[in-house]
Amino acid sequence: QVVVDDVRRAMGRAADHFFGSPTSELRVAGVTGTNGKTTTAFLLYSVLAAAGARPGLLGTVESRVGGRSRPVVRTTPEAIDLHRTFREMLNAGDRSCAMEASSHASELKRLVGVRFAVLVFTNLTQDHLDFHGTLERYFEAKRRLFLERPETPAAVNVDDPYGQRLADELLAKGRRVLRFGASASAEVRAEDLELSAAGASLRASGIDLRTPLRGRFNVENVLATVAAARLLEIEDAAIARGVEELAGVPGRFEAVDEGQPFTVIVDYAHTPDSLERVLRAARDLAENRLVCVFGCGGDRDRGKRPVMGRTVSELADSVIVTADNPRSEDLSTILAEILEGAGPEAEVEPDRSAAIAKAIGGAGPGDVIVIAGKGHEQGQQLADRTLPFDDRAVARRELRRLGARA
């Protein structure tokens, strides 16, 4: 029998040892933050692949080991599963890994024993307060990732106030930090930026870049990637090629196109900040109305519901409030809390399929419809079961019906 003071910390150390310290060989790039983790991890995966670094991928949408996709159980696996996966990556020929590092994983010590070649901080905004309690404790979970690894260089978004705090603290400790953003203190900034419906072109850290990813918020993700790639000493040509070759990320500002004269976008945005960013990017594409279909998850941070309702009512011309993943919570309670912020002009359609159908059926030329909250997800979580549900599939079905009626 072995008795330890901290079972979770001991589990991470034991798993690292049992699987032969895989991250001593595998170059792991970790991405943490409220928003942008998934896209930045995908971008880093693409850049590492362009550099010939044979990357694996771990994250919310997809995991890849040896180039093969695996189902995702959670954003960051438990310590034993995580170290086992790293060893499997090495056995499959991978030599690097781009991964999302969630605040839950940090708080629950799933990342103990993981050696990072670089860590990226994207931003910190309201989310997961049902778990962390306060924004400050949420930040502490992110901050701990960096402070516990004094040898790991960091790419930090200094446009974010929490990122600025983190960068200042790390620099004061003599850490290697590359700051990115629009701030004057950032070493990696977007110059000669041009945004269009086809993506963006810019110059950053002396590299000319083109990305098919749309929206100003994705420029931040590109800057995060460039900063991390610089710290990994990847060549300019590979950075540019990797950024350009990532055509999109499932459920992240993903267009659903059946030839209709309006735009339908599905996005995972489920925080006030991410919803605002997505709606502002969608507004840039809209020649006519901006319509948003969204809800909030049950058994999660209730404080963000009226804030999200207010955000959508301020930025969209038409709002349809619906179910997200109600889980064990009463749906009418969730909808009522959203409506506290959204106001009386918001429509309510509890059935998500019907809400999507209503938005698409009422759309005109030049409109943009944003279906927010679930993104890549392929199920709707209720109290006792998960039903098959994919926003993209529902939207595509309704668009085809619309085409059949035309």
Straight-line N-to-C gap? 72 Å
Mean pLDDT: 95
CATH architecture of the largest domain: 3-Layer(aba) Sandwich
Biggest sheet strand line-up = 2-5-1-6-7-8
Looking at this structure, what is the CATH superfamily of the largest domain?
Answer: Mur-like, catalytic domain
Low-confidence stretches: none
The number of helices is 14
Q: Into which percent range does the helicity of residues fall?
A: 25-40%
Radius of gyration: 21 Å
Bulk shape: globular
Domains counted in the coordinates: how many? 2
CATH class bucket of the largest domain? Alpha Beta
Using the coordinates shown, work out and report the CATH topology of the largest domain.
UDP-N-acetylmuramoyl-L-alanine:D-glutamate ligase
Strand % is 15-25%
Largest sheet: 6 strands, parallel
Counted beta strands: 19
Draw up the topology in text.
Layout lengths: L6 H12 L8 E6 L4 H14 L4 E4 L4 E3 L2 E3 L8 H13 L4 E5 L2 H5 L10 E4 L7 H4 L2 H13 L6 E4 L3 H12 L4 E4 L10 E6 L2 E6 L2 E5 L4 H16 L4 H10 L8 E2 L7 E5 L4 H14 L4 E5 L9 H12 L2 E4 L9 H12 L4 E2 L3 H10 L6 E5 L6 E3 L4 E3 L2 H15 L1
Parallel strand pairs: 1-5, 1-6, 2-5, 6-7, 7-8, 13-17, 14-15, 14-17, 15-16
Antiparallel strand pairs: 3-4, 9-10, 10-11, 12-13, 18-19
Helix pairs in contact: 1-3, 2-8, 2-9, 10-11, 11-12, 13-14
